[in-house]
């Protein structure tokens, strides 16, 4: 078992990573103060892991709300079901919400916890690779709006993150690949050695070799914890975690939520960012090819959707949360292992990047 801390003063919390944690009461008891729990899950993850979790939480009064599965249900309307379940069962401010699922459930349950009775505690139990390496850590919670990703939300930190790596054994292949996009992101923005390590360990990672996958999850959480501790509400370095997301969120919203998975859209977005960086002279040809090769080897898309025009991209990108004074700002790598936020990328640059990728 490995443990990390997200250091945020009196709101600091642990991240525990290991096999079988879902069945171990200790990891929950340390974080849960009251007697009541509301587990938020979905109709795919519930049948797989709810029984184990409820048994583990047998010292508490546990209620469950099961949401429909999918990015298209990450909405204010569906979130209302969580509030209804809490009210119907008379949950008060001492209730803890436990988010059992991937990033969609974690983001929604976290936002419900931030809002219900103006804030109740919550615990993240991420069950996808993407949620284990990224979304369960750092306190970004949200739902989508039809006009933009994660547009309604709050920064609200969990009490604890419990990562049971055994959950990955039931994860569909496509979801594993989507999670790898965020793993690769950490290598590009923060740790060139980790990027090289990924290039050399793809097979062991894919086989879910325990030591290898634990190392990858640990390193991603370590980087995220360090970044979030320095800049919890994204006024500086935290924006780097958004590499590929300005392009990626545009793809997700334009294609219809759930048609491109978040990780798939971010993968293509990172390729677009790499080509943009090459165009501006930040990355050389060899670095760009390494980024594209790793993303491609994992089986992630490297080209934007054929039907998406430059205007489609710009419409969505100008609503991105990093836009400042109506000026587009994107994250671009400056080498493999570091990145910057910049406002110098023009619409013409982006158009030429899209053209170059389509011609490949
Ligand atoms: N808050 C953040 O910092 C942050 C970071 C990255 C992504 N996100 C958000 O996370 C979401 C994407 O998360 P995701 O990739 O986990 O998608 P997801 O939550 O939709 O889960 C992917 C699929 O896998 C299923 N699933 C989950 N765990 C499983 C398991 N162990 N076995 C079998 N099936 C399982 C789910 O039911 C779903 O069908 C997006 O909404 C994205 O915006 C948030
Ligand atoms: O934690 C962060 O900060 C991130 O940007 C992580 C991203 O992987 C994640 O997709 C996040 O939800 C995007 O945030 P948004 O502010 O662009 O909606
Ligand atoms: Zn993301």
Task: Describe the protein.
It holds the Pfam family DHQ_synthase. One of its GO terms (cellular component) is cytoplasm. Its EC number is 4.2.3.4. This is 3-dehydroquinate synthase. The protein is an alpha/beta fold. The chain folds into 2 domains: 2-170, Rossmann fold; 173-359, Dehydroquinate synthase-like - alpha domain (Dehydroquinate synthase-like, alpha domain), CATH 1.20.1090. The protein is 46% helix and 18% strand. The chain has helices at residues 26-29, 45-56, 76-88, 103-115, 129-135, 173-190, 192-200, 202-206, 210-230, 245-255, 262-279, 285-298, 310-317, 347-359; strands at 2-6, 13-18, 36-42, 61-67, 96-101, 122-126, 140-145, 148-155, 160-164, 330-335, 338-342. The strands form 3 sheets. The protein has a 7-stranded mixed beta sheet with strand order 1-2-9-6-5-3-4. Strands 7-8 form a two-stranded antiparallel ribbon. Strand 1 (2-6) and strand 2 form a beta hairpin. Helix 5 packs parallel to helix 9. The longest helix has 21 residues, at 210-230. The protein is globular and about 60 Å long. Zinc ion (ZN) is lined by residues 134, 182, 245, 262, 266. Zinc ion binds at residues 134, 182, 245, 262, 266.
């Amino acid at each position: 078992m490995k443990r990390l801390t997200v250091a945020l003063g009196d709101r600091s919390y642990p991240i525990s990573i290991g096999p079988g944690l879902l069945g171990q009461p200790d990891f929950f008891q340390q974080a849960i103060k009251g007697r009541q729990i509301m587990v938020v899950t979905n109709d795919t993850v519930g049948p797989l892991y709810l029984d184990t979790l409820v048994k583990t939480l047998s010292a508490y009064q546990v209620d469950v709300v099961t949401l429909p599965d999918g990015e298209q249900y990450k909405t204010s309307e569906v979130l209302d079901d969580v509030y209804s379940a809490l009210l119907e069962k008379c949950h008060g401010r001492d209730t803890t919400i436990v988010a059992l699922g991937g990033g969609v459930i974690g983001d929604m349950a976290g936002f419900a916890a931030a809002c219900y009775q103006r804030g109740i505690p919550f615990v993240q139990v991420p069950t996808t690779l993407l949620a284990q390496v990224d979304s369960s850590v750092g306190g970004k919670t949200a739902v989508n709006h039809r006009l933009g990703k994660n547009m309604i939300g709050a920064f609200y930190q969990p009490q604890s993150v419990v990562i049971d790596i055994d959950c990955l054994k039931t994860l569909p292949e496509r979801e594993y690949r989507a999670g790898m996009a965020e793993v690769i992101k950490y290598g590009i923005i923060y740790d060139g050695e980790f990027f090289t390590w990924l290039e050399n360990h793809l097979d062991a990672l894919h086989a879910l070799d325990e030591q290898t996958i634990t190392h990858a999850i640990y390193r991603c959480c370590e980087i995220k914890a360090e970044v979030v501790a320095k800049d919890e509400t994204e006024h500086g370095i935290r924006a780097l975690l958004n590499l590929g997301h300005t392009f990626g969120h545009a793809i997700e919203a334009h294609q219809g939520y759930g048609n491109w998975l978040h990780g798939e859209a971010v993968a293509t977005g990172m390729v677009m960012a790499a080509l943009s960086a090459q165009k501006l002279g930040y990355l050389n040809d060899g670095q760009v090819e390494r980024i594209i090769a790793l993303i491609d080897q994992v089986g992630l898309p490297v080209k934007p959707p054929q039907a998406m025009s430059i205007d489609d991209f710009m419409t969505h990108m100008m609503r991105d949360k990093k836009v400042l004074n109506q000026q587009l700002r994107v994250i671009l790598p400056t080498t493999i292992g570091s990145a910057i936020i910049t406002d110098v990328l023009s619409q013409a640059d982006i158009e030429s990047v899209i053209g170059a990728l389509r011609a490949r």
